[in-house]
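User: Continuing from earlier, I have the next pair ready.

Assistant: Great, send them over.

User: Here they are, in order.

Assistant: Folding the first of the pair now:
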Amino acid sequence: MPSNKDKILAAAMELFHEQGFQATGLEEILSHCGVCKSNFYYHFKSKEELGRQVIQQKIALMNEQIFGPSLDNKALSPKERISRLFRLMQAVAEEHDCRRGCYIGNLAIELGGRYEALRGMISDFLEEVQQRIEACLLEGTADQDINLHGMKAEETAAALTALLQGGMLLSKAHRSSMALQYSGRLVEHIVGNGWEGDQHAG
């Protein structure tokens, strides 16, 4: 049986994705999970502290379900890892009928400068993703598996990270994964890997 803390975290993670961090009130979270306010403050100092732990938990899940099976998957070639990342993110978008977008990307847009500690966590994570893409590109170019056509690996990794987040944003705006599909085809030209359907891990 989940603990009260786990119930709060699960409810907050769901509601933050569905409604946004700022639009979700503490009372709504507690009503959703059936935990009293005194118990909430036993585990969390504030809603911002809850947000910090939710982000940590979500990052761990994304590493397990998306980035581990793609960017960190040494059974795949570097170009296959990058292509698989885009396929998995497309599957994530389609899993919820393209209504939700990227959990981390949504928070980055919403929080802005109001919750600097949370924004910093998100910035650090997106920077880490970019560095992992860059590592794949460097490995691929060293193996002559990837041709960056004169661009630096760091520049290309930044562009691919932006392409991925932009595709997730447009999937939410248009309720369609077409932008992610087009992004995947562009990745074909950048890293030279075929684009085929894939399923979201987990």
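And the other member of the pair:
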Amino acid sequence: MDPVERPSPQAISHSLQQVQQTAMARSKAIAHLQEKLHASVASTSDNYQHQLAQLHIQLQAVEREQSLQRAKQQQQQQQLAQELPTIHRDLHQLQQSLSQLDRLQTNIVSIQQQIADLDRQQAEAEARLVQRSKRTREAVTRDINNLETYSRLLGLRIEARKPNIIKFSFTNIDPRHPERVYQIDIDISGEDFVVVASAPDLGSNLLSLVEHELNDHRSVGKFLKTVRHLFKETLET
């Protein structure tokens, strides 16, 4: 068996130096890595702290904004709660106004219908009035023509005082004063005759009576006979 060859002290020393150099190099590398790691951790920590601080600031701003919004919302809710009775009252009044408007519209339609009916009735009444006035004028004209005999015998004179007002004047009533004039006026403008006045005055009761009789029989001749008789009766009082 061959004896084991032992390394020389120089070789061992050289090997130790290499090991030490390698260990030192590794130690330096580890130290460098540790420094870089510490620097990176410190930088990361600083960035994290900075970001955390920014987030905290933003969070505070958000909380302040939320607080302001809540306060504003509470104020609006309180204001709405205060205004709500007024809103309900206004709404009720609006509903009443709408109901009144509906009733007014219904009334307007009814009134318009009534106006149309009244217009129709008025037109019919005016047509009847025109027709009756025409008949009245014709009757007066006919009676006046027939009264020419009365005019000659009884001293009757007929004249128009105003538009639609006819004056009948009598003489030969008072035997002591045959020239004395007695007169009576009638209005023929309307549907019925209207006795306006007499001279001497026969009184409102007698004038109303002869007016009523005239509008009943529509005869001017009968009317004049009655009036002449009433004038004669005044001589006896």
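Worth noting for the second one:
DSSP finds four helices and four strands in the chain. The helical segments are 9-146, 148-154, 204-217, 220-234.
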